[in-house]
Specification:
Blueprint (H helix, E strand, L loop, with lengths): L1 H21 L6 H22 L9 H24 L5 H23 L7 H28 L12 H21 L7 H18 L7 H23 L2 H24 L4 H6 L23 H9 L3 E6 L1 H5 L3 H13 L3 E6 L9 H8 L7 E3 H4 L8 E5 L8 H4 L18 E6 L19 E5 L2 H13 L2
Parallel strand pairs: 1-2, 1-4, 2-3, 4-5, 5-6
Helix pairs in contact: 1-2, 1-9, 4-5, 4-8, 5-6, 5-7, 5-8, 6-7, 8-9, 11-17, 13-17
Length: 463
């Protein structure tokens, strides 16, 4: 039995690595996800039926409870994932990540009493519980922010000092619990749990909206790290491998996104970038805007040689990914070269625009990252911006007083013509005005993205 269980664990660990590798490409990501899910299923079933120890007892009631819980969780997860809209995907990711952190915290709360007197095991328990709890409470706050239930960052007086002091307190408390491992009441772990929840909340509430993709990625790495400590505790290879992969991948993604924003991680956590309170930041924007009619835009696009589409969260809100793909195919039939410019933090989570466009079967090769597409804008006839705002704001390059100053952007202002589709002139997620809208080369194409693009496609077909 033990040998068979180890084989199940080995297969599970290998499938995690293969699945993660395949998820690096949009064409193979779905298959990679299924391979990883198969490995996890095999590891779970192997643990339930093949794991043996002196404390292992199996009876009908335990099996009913275990598989009943699995069935309920599977049903909730399946129904939620099937019904969620693409615009709500970031919130779903935050919620699921929070549940992972909560599981790690529950392991610590459950195993604490059974491992008193064992400082090694207790160190894994405390580390996993604290990190998982921070991830849980932080992810719930991130969910509320992404869902629009907490629109403004909340910054308490001297919040940096307060948060750092609380962090040091949590670390000192954790070390104390591990060192005093033989004579601690059970209530002590619950107190540490409560303090960690408070820190997770205070850690997340000051962070502004435009930094939320980075925070989601960071919290995801926390959950992976907490799961890895659970793997150490149980000497469970798939749990350890999965946790390390999630933790390291989340950390690398967080650092990559910070690099793309030209901001150190410390500034994301402790700074005020992207906050709604920053709306008054930056120089006062003056100038006039001009509208473009659908007939004029149709002619402009139809007779262009090269068009670059910049998708943003507004595209997801309008669920216009399918009509934008139809526009792309229509223009290509007319001999127009069409590409999509993808900013690393476009949308509400890492890769949001890639997933959105993949849903409408846009070819992966047409999605061009920021550093590759920026040199091409000077040779672009028309840039069509659909629902994006902060990632194309030239203030990031020209206005030192702007709260997004220094963030690399898509340099769409270098194109011959820029057309922006928006519902209104409202500021973007960072809460600041966009000077691009007042550029003489820029025209505004107001309206709901799906409706406006549908009219545009119909107009081009008549040419």
């Amino acid at each position: 039995m033990e040998g068979l269980l180890e084989i199940c664990y080995l297969i599970g660990s290998v499938t995690f690595i293969i699945g993660l590798k395949m998820m690096g490409n949009a064409k193979t990501a779905r298959k990679g996800n299924l391979i990883g899910a198969f490995g996890m299923t095999l590891a779970i079933l192997g643990t339930i039926f093949l794991f043996e120890s002196e404390h292992t007892t199996r009876n009908a009631m335990k099996m009913v409870l275990i598989f009943g819980a699995i069935a309920i969780g599977t049903a909730i997860g399946w129904i939620t994932a099937k019904k969620v809209e693409m615009t709500k995907m970031p919130e779903l990711v935050s919620m699921f990540n929070g549940m992972g952190g909560a599981c790690a915290a529950l392991i610590g709360l459950t195993e604490f009493e059974h491992n008193l007197g064992n400082p090694t095991a207790l160190s894994f328990i405390v580390a996993g519980m604290v990190i998982g709890t921070v991830s849980f409470s932080g992810s719930i706050i991130a969910y509320l922010k992404l869902a629009g239930k907490m629109k403004q960052p909340i910054r308490l007086p001297q919040y940096n000092i307060l948060n750092n002091a609380l962090l040091l307190g949590v670390l000192a408390f954790s070390v104390y619990v591990v060192l005093q491992n033989q004579s601690l009441p059970l209530a002590i772990i619950w107190i540490l749990f409560a303090v960690a929840i408070v820190y997770g909340i205070l850690f997340t509430i000051p962070i502004g909206g435009a930094d939320m993709p980075v925070v989601i990625s960071l919290l995801n790495s926390f959950t992976g790290l907490a799961a890895a400590f659970g793997g150490f505790l149980y000497d469970n290879k798939p749990m350890l491998t999965g946790g390390i992969l999630v933790g390291s991948a989340g950390t690398l993604l967080t650092l990559a996104m910070c690099k793309a924003m030209n901001r150190p991680l410390s500034n994301v956590i402790f700074g005020a970038f992207g906050g709604g309170g920053a709306a008054g930041g930056g120089s006062e924007v003056k100038g006039t805007i001009k509208d473009v009619q659908v007939s004029d835009l149709a002619v402009m696009l139809n007779y262009s040689k090269k068009v670059v589409i910049v998708p943003g969260y507004g595209l997801a809100v309008a669920q216009a990914q399918h009509i934008i793909h139809e526009l792309e195919k229509l223009l290509e039939e007319r001999g127009v070269e069409v590409k999509y410019a993808i900013h690393p933090v476009a949308g509400r989570m890492p890769g949001h625009m890639n997933v959105l466009l993949a849903e409408s079967n846009v070819e992966y090769d047409k999605l061009v990252e920021m550093e590759d597409i920026n040199p091409e804008f000077e040779q672009t006839d028309v840039v069509l911006i659909v629902g994006a705002n902060d990632v194309v704001n030239p203030s990031a390059k020209t206005d030192p007083s702007s709260p997004i100053y220094g963030m690399p952007i898509l340099e769409v202002d270098k194109a011959k013509n820029v057309v922006v589709n928006k519902r209104s002139m409202n500021a973007g997620y960072a809460g600041i005005d966009n000077i691009l809208f007042y550029d003489p080369k820029c025209s505004m194409f107001f309206g709901d993205a799906k409706k406006a693009l549908t009219e545009l496609v119909a107009e081009i077909k008549q040419l």
